[in-house]
Structures are given as structure tokens and as C-alpha cells.
Fold:
Amino acid sequence: MEILGKTMTAKKVRPVKIAQFGEGNFLRGFVDYMIDIANEQGKFDGDIVMIKPTASGNLEKFHRQDCQYTVSLRGIVDGQAKVLNRQITSIADAVEAYGEYDKYMNLAELDTLRFVVSNTTEAGIVYDGEDRFELNPPGTFPGKLTKFLYHRFETFQGSRDKGLVMLPVELIDDNGIVLKNCVMQFAELWNLGDAFREWVEEACVFTSTLVDRIVTGYPKDTEEEEWEALGYEDRIMVTGEPFALWVIESPEDISGELPLPEAGLPVIFTENQKPYKQRKVRILNGAHTSFVLASYLCGNDTVKMSMDDSDIRSFMERTIFDEVIPTLTLPREELMDFARAVISRFQNPYVKHALLSISLNSVSKWRTRCLPSLLGYREKFGRLPARLTFSLAALMAFYHGTEIRDKALIGHRDGQEYAVLDDAEVLEFFRDYCQRDSRGFVEAFLAKEAFFGQDLNRIDGLTDAVTGYLEDIRENGMRAALCRIS
Structure:
């Protein structure tokens, strides 16, 4: 079978405008996919060079296919389950920062280069005072970027029109601000001079971004079937969901240089990404946290099964539309559209999202994702939101277990064991308190300021409400209790 490559895709030669730190599935199924569409639409006309920022592994698979690959998006589109395949031609080359150091650093000398994209994991944007400029390359990603920028600064003698725009997509708050702070710290540590620091400050732009798309990666288990359907061999193809969102917060307007919305892509340029992050955390993540534990105890194993369960789906929808959306600040129609997209994503038949996987660290997740909505609802309406309150009782029922084994609390559903994974302090609390009477259990849990940042017993009516829901679950089972309020 023929291997996918430039001959098959008829790749056009374009100026290299993007240096991309990272070759992983997410970048290729999200950023590189969008750039490919913008190129096709005649809105960008630029190529990407991928940089492998780690020393382990190699880029053999990428070079074998001339960095050409397929993105296969699978999910609900216009109410129908669809598979949308696209050959991606936006990557011109791939280079190893360690094995091809000179070639990698030569990218900084390209007159056409304008953007730096990165996804080096949440732990990638860190400052390490032990990192050294003399290393080829420095060990940390911010260290690599600092030396890369310094080489460009020297190459173009500090020209202000040769600064770069940083587009980090690492999943940390204010990722661009954190990255810039690290670069400035390295510039100080390595004595790179005031002129360089001024160039970084005045000529370079550090954006903070929010990204959203489930990228499931290479379909290893079905690769032969995938190749047969495509008609060619592709060992670096990427699968994911159709939904995507890229929110870019920038201190300067860069939309003219990166006109992705003009290509019909779901990209938002803004001066403040926080309302969009709040929307995602409260609606998408909050919905997960509010229903998955109850759904699991009702007998479901995946998000798709939950959406096919009318009781759970009703509970989820009323949580989002009746209790979460009223507490948010973006225009209502934007929130409603996002919520409808979330529900469609939950129904995706191609993504088998296990409820037990989502259940990891549910106590801290509930505090971050659900508690702000509960407090906001009570402040706005003067009463507790029934379903968000019930979700706290459902969490307590899910965390019921008297044995910790292999760092997991052992729960039981229909006589079968399941593992509850969380911090040791959380698991030990539930092991020690879960057999108390409902009120004593609830009072002790809500009083844990280490879990919630405050004593939730002080919220008028919450202790009584959670106790009532927990007693109902214990006496009548999860489904019967949930249906009484859904």
C-alpha cells in the first residue's frame, strides 16, 4: 500500500511562518489542522516547522511521510454521526532540538518567521535556575525559547520588526504571561543585557490562550482498517472530535496577521479570555463533575451511555441550563450555543469517555467546577440549586468505602468493586467517616476547609439539603433519588 507523502498530497511550498515546539497529537489535530485550512482558504500562506523539544525518541515516522498526515474528525455534525478526513500539508519539516541543534537554531534566522506555537505539557512552562545558556539546547522549554529569541535578536541586530508572537497552548492559567515571566527571568539569570530584555518586551508578543478539542490520537487498534478506508498507509494520522475552540488573549491586535476566523475557523481574539475559560470550566467540566458520579452509580460506564440514559441526560441538561448558565457573564445566546455544543460532544459515538476516568480527584474538581456555580446561583436567586447540591451528595455516595488498597479507596456498585482515586487525605477522610450517620458524615465533610477553602456548613440550608439527598440515596438508591429532582 502506498505511503502518504508530499507526492500524494501535492504539497505547495510556502514561507515558514511558525516554529512549533512539540510534535504531539494535540498540536497536529488542532493548530496544524487550522493552519492547513487557512492556507487552503488563501488567508495565511505559511508553513510550520515542528521542533522536537525532548532528547528521547526520534522523528523517523514524520520524515518517512514528509510530515504529511491525516486528521480524522469523528462525531456529531448537523445532527448526524460523521467521519471527516483531511490530509494536512501545513508542516514543511520536523527538526530535533537535540539531535539537529544547528538546524533547529537556524530557524531563528528565518526572515519569514513570525509565530512560536508550543505544547510542552502543563509542566513544560517552568523556570529552573539551574538551566544553563551554554547547553545546546538548554533543558527547559522557556530556556530553549529564551536562547532561540536571543539568537534571533542578535541575527537581526535587535530590529523591532523581527520580534515573534508566542502562542502557547499548555493547559495552565495565563500561559503566555507565565511563559514571558520565565523568559525574562532567564534573560536576567544569563545576563543577556538590557537591550535584549527591551526587545522581548517591545518587539515580541506573548499571548495567553484557551484551547478545547478532544484529540484521541493515533488509532493503533484499528490501523489496518483505517488505512484500507483511506486508501494509503498513514502511521502518524490523528483522530479527534469535530468541535474546536481557540481563544487568544493578546496585549496587541494580531488578528490581521493570523486571520483564522476569516477562514471560518472557531478562533476568538480577545483582550480577556477569562469569561471563556469560566464558560468552559462551569459548563463543560462542571457538567461532567455534576453528573458522572451519580451516573456511574446508576449503572452507566461512559459519557455516551449517560447521554442515552434519559434520567441522567435530563439531570445534566437542567443542571446546565437552569443552574449554571444563569450565573455566567457572557451573552446568553453564546452560552446557550456553547451548551448545545457540549451536549452534542457528550453524545459522540466515536469517543468512549469512561466515567471512572473522569472521576479522578472529584473533590477538588467539584470545588473548582461546581462550587462557584452553586454560590453564584444562591447569591443571585436566594436559594440553593437543587441539582448542583444533589451532586455533592452523589459525590459522597460514590466515595463510600472502608478500605484503601493500592492508593485507591474501594467502592462497590452492584457487588462489584471500583477504585476511587484522589489525594491520600481525601481518601482517608472518606474511609474514616463514610459509615457515620448521614448528618454527621455531611457535617464533617462540609467542614473540611482543606477541601473547599471554607466551611460549607455556614451556607444557609446546605447541610440540611445535602443530608436529605444523601439519606434518600442510601435508603432508595441513586436513580430513585436523582429522579425525584431531575
Observations:
- The mean pLDDT is 97.
- The longest strand covers residues 69-77.
- Residues 274-297 form the longest helix (24 residues).
- The chain is about 45% helix and 15% strand.
